[in-house]
Specification:
Bound molecules: S-adenosylmethionine
Number of domains: 1
Strand order of the largest sheet: 1-8-7-2-3-5-4-6
Number of strands: 8
CATH superfamily: Vaccinia Virus protein VP39
Structural class: alpha/beta
Oligomer: single chain
Length: about 300
Amino acid sequence: MRPASAPVTSPRIRKAPGRKPSIPRPKTASLRSVSARIEKRDAGAALASLPADSMSILITDPPYRTVDRHGGSGKLDRWFGSSLTWRQIGDVLAIARSRMRADGVVFVMTNPDGLREAIGALERAGFIRVRPITWNKVAPGLGGGMRHQTEYILVGYLPGSRTLCGADLVSVPTVGPNTANRYPTEKPADLGRELARIASIGRGDHVVDPFCGSGALLVGSAERGARVTGYDVAGAAVKRASERLVKPAPKTPTKAPAPTRKASKPSLEGRLTAGKPAYRNSAREAKPKVRKVTR
Ligand SMILES: C[S@@+](CC[C@H](N)C(=O)[O-])C[C@H]1O[C@@H](n2cnc3c(N)ncnc32)[C@H](O)[C@@H]1O
């Protein structure tokens, strides 16, 4: 079990003989430095393809199907057309459980309507001491009826799980509806950052979001140097998450532009004619010949 206080990404300076010391990038390093993999795959099948002991943290906001306030199915049905019952999500979590390292932890989001079913799903999947972290959405936005000011992030432990540190209430503003490129149900990257901090995620961790959407919940882990993997069945999600997390392939260096020629000193001829109009040499403007008249 990793002690909670262990510094995970403290900068160290490694000296190699004859070389300049290399300074590891700070936690806030650009995401271009991370090891990230985003795949268009079904969550269950993708998790089943991972080797045992290969994942240390699972952070996800699954496409849960809940009954909404008007008695119909929640809006995830309309957005994704592939929402799942908590029983189905529990089956996916059970596969994840069998791939987790001994010190692993899962973070699974739910709204208050699905809280009971979600806790049952985690317990059936084999996680213990399931408890919620409350997410205060700060400004939950406009909408009809009673809006949810809070949602929950359920924490599921294993017998050897690492110790989490922090409070069980996180306050992070939601992603506003007018945010450019906003993915439906996109969560704030700061929420993922909070969870990464609570779980002391760092280098050596492999963090997976099997329903990654825009990849927002993986950003914090990636920034802390963890290897991150996201799966989603929607092409738009894979595109957005890849743009956000995956290091672009190195570009083939373009041919350097030809150096601009330094204006050379004009030749002697040039210097003599400089400033004089060109027409002085043209036939049209040549001086009329003086005709010699003999008397
Ligand atoms: C609630 S959204 C995730 C939003 C994400 N956390 C974000 O911040 O952008 C759930 C995602 O699950 C995806 N999904 C639905 N069924 C899936 C399946 N069987 N396997 C993988 N992804 C699935 C949907 O396409 C959707 O992008």
